[in-house]
Amino acid sequence: MQAENLPKPHGNSGRPHGLRTRIRTVRWVSQLVFLALFLILVTGTVCTVMLGRGIAITEPFGVLQAIVAGSTSSQSLSVMTGTLVIGVIVFVAVVVLVGRAFCAWACPVGTTIDAIDTALQRLKFKPLLARGQRNGNDSSSSLLRNGMNKYGVMAAGLTGSALVKFPVWCAFCPVGTLCRGAVAGAELSIGAEILVIPAVGAMSLGEKRFWCRYLCPVGGALTILSRLNPFIKPRIRQDGPHKDCGVCKTICPEGIDVCSEKSFARCTKCLDCYAKCPFGAVRIGVL
Amino acid sequence: MRLKVSRRQFLGMTASFAAVTGLIGLADVVPNRSLVRPPGVIGEDRFLESCIRCGACADACPVRGIGMAHLTDGLRNVGTPVLTGYCMVFRGLDNPGPAKTSAWRNNALAHGQQETCFDCISVCPSDALRPVSVNQLRMGTAVVKKDRCLWYLHGVCGAPCARTCPFDAISITTGPVVDETKCVGCGQCDYVCLARTIGPTAITVEPKQT
Description:
Chain A is mainly α.
């Protein structure tokens, strides 16, 4: 790294002001509030949030699997199609407004993985796959670390559901597993729960947020829809000093090269690039 | 909007697809056990197809009677609801017992109605739990374990099971006997069984035969 060429963090331009240094704290608070909401306070889980009696918002990928799994009766199909339509409408509305912000600010599994990543960082553990690499990670050229893999998982979830005739992804989805563990209380320690969450957590040994970045099909669904989202995108200041230092790409939980990215469909709005750019060159274009 | 997929990305995507599909192929490796289901399950196969394993029913149950099936119950069952506690069936029968049931019965006689609970059915988003009438209701069947039942063993028991059952499905002859045509499998007898005070229960709900 050409360290001597880099200015000190938050050097001359873009001096850190209060909000910028506290973004991570604000995000932790949001993540913990949503964790409490989904796991304890609200009736339902992430998969199905109940708003009063009989009004449910259901995660569309689950319902889609149930439909593919082949409930032949038309009555079931009409109930499920209704649920699917409501779910899709709500999802599209939320995604158009805030993109993939769910992943960074609300998802209980994202929060768990972030906690693991932070703990590893405190222990000075350098994720295995990030070792020996300099300017960020070129995830586009790797078989394993590949943003397209989540679509493979997604397609397998749907095909598998049709093959074995039950919504098979739902049974092993980390989000569902975490929520069901909380619903079932003390039984958290038995069965799939002890396998799924540690497995997803262990992926963080390879790279931070490995699961969210390459494999999570829910994140994949959000990424597809996120192309419709025009708001809250990182922008590069054209005026101030700015070098192609690659810091944004390294710190971004999705590995986005903020300086050259155009679409930002993968962006989870964590605002880390805004908070940590050594040149203060990233601003957030709200509109 | 243009989607560029490199050859490696495509290979990775195909590999993930194959890997996850392969895992899914293991769906029947662990034997899938029959389980006692919450109300509204009509046809186990249809139920497994449409249940999206979201846990909303368990979260909605006012008496926390529904738990989630685990890996040991078979891969098809993972995350599906199981009646682990009891189902109160009628509102007012939470924390059941002989006194509760007789008070509820008198109240029902006076007001001429018995309001059912079935909150689990009303929250189910995918029609896996379907509206049922009490007559159709069958979650399982209670079975008396004679080697543990205090009545059969020692003849000392006030038979709280029989006096608690809202359906009068348990009669006392030489000991508690379950009338399988009346029993819906709510598990309230299990909840009040006196054998629980000294060890395992002597009456359990077994899954219905499909």
